[in-house]
Structure formats: C-alpha cells, structure tokens
Amino acid sequence: MQKNLHLNKYIDHTLLDPSAPFGKYTELVRDAVKYEFFAVCINPFFVPLVHNLFKNHPECTTKICSVISFPFGLEDLRSKCEEANYVIAHGASELDLVANLSSIKSGDWKRFSDELHFVREEAQEQTLKIILEVGLLTDDEIKKACDISVENKFNFVKTSTGYLAKLLPEQTARYVKLMAECVKGSLTAVKASGGIKTLADLNLMTENGATRVGTSNSINIMQELENVG
User: How does DSSP classify residue 206?
Assistant: First the structure.
C-alpha cells in the first residue's frame, strides 16, 4: 500500500442507511477487503449476511462492528443485552452501544452505569464503544459519562450516531479533544463519528485524539489519500 495508507486502520467503514439494498453489503465487504479497513459498522440485521460474505475472504482481517439500540438508545436493558448476544453469536466482535440520553439528562448516573455494567458483562471480551451523542450533552455531562465508561471498562467513547445532532467537523473535533482528555491514562480510547467526509476531516479527528473514525465516506477518503500519496 502507498505511503500514509495506514490511516485505513483508523476507519470503521460504515453502512447504517436503513434503505440500503442487500447488494450494498456485498459492495461494503468488497471495499473492506480492498482497503483493509479496521472494521465495517452495520445494523444487527445484516451481521449474519456480512459475516458469511467475509468467509469468502479468509485473508481479510477486517472486523464486524454492530450498533446496539441504534439510533436512540431507548430500548430496555434486556433488549440491549439480547441484541448484543445476537450480534456476537453471528460474527460481530465490536459493538457500538447508543447511550440512554434520558438517563444522562436526568442525572440518573446509577442507571447509566448499571446499563454499561450489564452490557459489558454480556459482551465479555468483545470491543465495546458507547455512543454519547455529544451534541445533545453539556461538557460536564460528557465528562461524567466518560468517567463512567472508563469505570465499566468500555474500550471507546464515541461522539455521535450521525443521525441526531448534526455537527460540523470542527465542532466534533472539539468534543473529541474533550473526551480524549477525560479518558487520558486509561485503557479507553475515542472514536469520532458524524459528518466525517474528507481526508481533512479524518486528520482533524486524529490530531485531536481520536484513534478510530466512523464514516460512510471511507472510499472517498481513501481515494483522496491515494492521490496525495
């Protein structure tokens, strides 16, 4: 691969469009194999399909990431745990759990922490990310949520679903920096997502502390990178 194409390993190649036909998932896997993205990020329904498609490419190391309780985070805890078990059983090794924003906005930190604790137990050794939808939270709420995520051994805190609060890249980068400061010194990292469309956007996120980036514009970014290389 050309110089700087290691940035592919920062990318969760994302397809969460509910109207995408099945054929788009064949393309998703084909592109993941070509560019060797760290993961593909999909809805639970498509995990078995994508897992089977990857069986045709045993040399590919791309992981399957599934969103849980997407995009609102308001399913009950039992439903979230069942969804987590389902995607793990069908081939997902990374889970992006949408936080219950109502718990956070209510200051019910015990409920928020309990949910993370039980999902962490269900997921066992699998990689877990918590989506905080930072554009709807105060900085203090973000800091507290990050602290609790670290306590519950989540692997990543993540900025956004990309479906609710719409942020400019510069706004997302500020939140990434804030979150990176909150988890500094822990085993928890930061994933940036929502409106990341260009190579400049991706670089802005990594410069501010993100070690993973979720985007549906992965191919355009990689093509930009090839042209730079």
Answer: H
Total count of domains within the chain: 1
Q: Is the pTM here over 0.70, yes or no?
A: yes
Q: How large is the average pLDDT for residues 176-185? A: 98
The CATH number assigned to the domain holding 68 equals: 3.20.20.70
Tell me which of 80, 144, 158, 201 is the catalytic residue.
Answer: 158
Burial of 49 (0-12, 13-18, 19+ CB in 10 A): middle
Catalytic one among 96, 129, 144, 201?
Answer: 96
- Confidence (pLDDT) at 229: 61
pLDDT at 123 over 90: yes
Provide the residue type at 92 as one letter: A
Residue 96 a catalytic site member = yes
114 is catalytic: no
Q: How far apart are CA 196 and CA 173, in angstroms?
A: 10
Which range of residues forms the domain containing residue 69? 5-228
| Cβ-defined contacts of 108-112 (< 8 Å, 24+) | 109/144, 109/148, 112/145, 112/148
For residues 186 and 184, give the distance between their C-alpha atoms in angstroms, rounded to a whole number.
Answer: 6
What Rg, from alpha-carbon coordinates, does the chain have? 17
pLDDT digits (tens, 9 = 90+) for 6-20: 899 999 999 999 999
